[in-house]
Design a protein that fits this description.
By secondary structure, the chain is α/β, with parallel strands linked by helices. It folds into two domains: 70 residues, Arc Repressor Mutant, subunit A, CATH 1.10.10.10; 111 residues, NAD(P)-binding Rossmann-like Domain (Rossmann fold). The chain is 45% helix and 17% strand. It is built from nine helices and nine strands. 22% of the residues are buried.
C-alpha cells in the first residue's frame, strides 16, 4: 500500500504541536479538546483536526485528546523515538553554539563530532565533543554511525563538502550555509536554515506595524 503524501505545511506544524503538548504535560494536563488546544496555539480547531487526521486522528468525539498519548505519537511521527547522531562541519561560533545546545540531546539528537580546517582547533573539545580536522571526515563517518550532518560553514565550500558527505554515506544534511545545495545524489534529505531570511521577515513585520501605528495616530 502506497504511503500517503503529507504536505510540507502540515509537517512544519507538527513540531509546534509537540512543543505545546509537552508544555501541557508539564502543567499536569491529561486531556484536551481541539478547541482548547486551538486557543493555546492560535490555530483553528478545524486545522488541528485536519492535520492530525493525516496520521490517524488520535482523538475521540466528546473526549478530546489524551495529551501524553498524542505527545508520544507525534514524537514517533517526527522520529523522536530514535536516536540520531549528528556531526557539525564548521566549528566556528555557530557550530560551537549548536554543540552547546543541550536540548538537542533531550530530543534524541546527539552531536558526536565537529570538524574544521583551522589547525588551532584540532583536538579542542566543546562540551566534551572533540573537534577534528576536515581531512578526517571520511574515516570518522566510516567508523561511526552518522545520521545527519550540519553545515555551518562559508557558502563557497558548502557544495563540495555536502557531496563529500553524500559520498561518505550521509543521507540527511542540516544546511546553515547561505546557499541552496546542488547535490549529486537527489535522494539525500536537505533542510535549509536561512537565519537572515527569518530576520528579514521580522523586519518586514516591524516596518508594517510601524506604518499601521503611524497611520492610526
Amino acid at each position: 500500500m502506497e504511503e500517503k503524501e503529507i504536505s510540507q505545511a502540515v509537517i512544519r506544524r507538527m513540531p509546534r504541536y509537540y512543543r505545546y503538548l509537552g508544555e501541557l504535560i508539564d502543567d499536569g494536563v491529561e486531556r484536551i479538546s481541539s478547541n482548547d488546544l486551538s486557543k493555546r496555539m492560535n490555530v483553528t480547531a478545524s486545522q488541528i483536526r485536519q492535520d492530525l487526521n493525516n496520521f490517524g486522528g488520535f482523538g475521540q468525539q466528546g473526549y478530546g485528546y489524551n495529551v501524553k498519548y498524542l505527545y508520544e505519537e507525534i514524537g514517533k511521527i517526527l522520529g523522536l523515538n530514535e536516536k540520531h547522531n549528528i556531526i557539525v562541519i564548521g566549528a566556528g561560533n555557530l557550530g560551537q553554539a549548536l554543540a552547546n545546545y543541550v536540548k538537542f540531546e533531550k530530543l534524541g539528537f546527539m552531536i558526536i563530532g565537529l570538524f574544521d580546517v583551522n589547525p588551532a582547533l584540532d583536538g579542542v573539545t566543546v562540551r566534551g565533543i572533540k573537534i577534528h580536522m576536515l581531512e578526517e571526515l571520511e574515516q570518522f563517518c566510516a567508523e561511526n554511525q552518522v545520521d545527519i550532518a550540519a553545515l555551518t560553514m562559508p557558502k563557497a565550500k558548502a557544495d563540495a563538502i555536502a557531496n563529500r558527505l553524500v559520498d561518505a554515506g550521509i543521507h540527511a544534511i542540516w544546511n546553515f550555509a547561505h546557499v541552496d545545495l546542488e547535490l549529486l545524489d537527489k535522494d539525500v534529505v536537505v533542510e535549509n536554515v536561512h537565519l537572515s531570511d527569518s530576520l528579514m521577515q521580522l523586519s518586514y513585520n516591524v516596518a508594517r506595524n510601524k506604518k499601521a501605528r503611524e497611520s492610526g495616530s
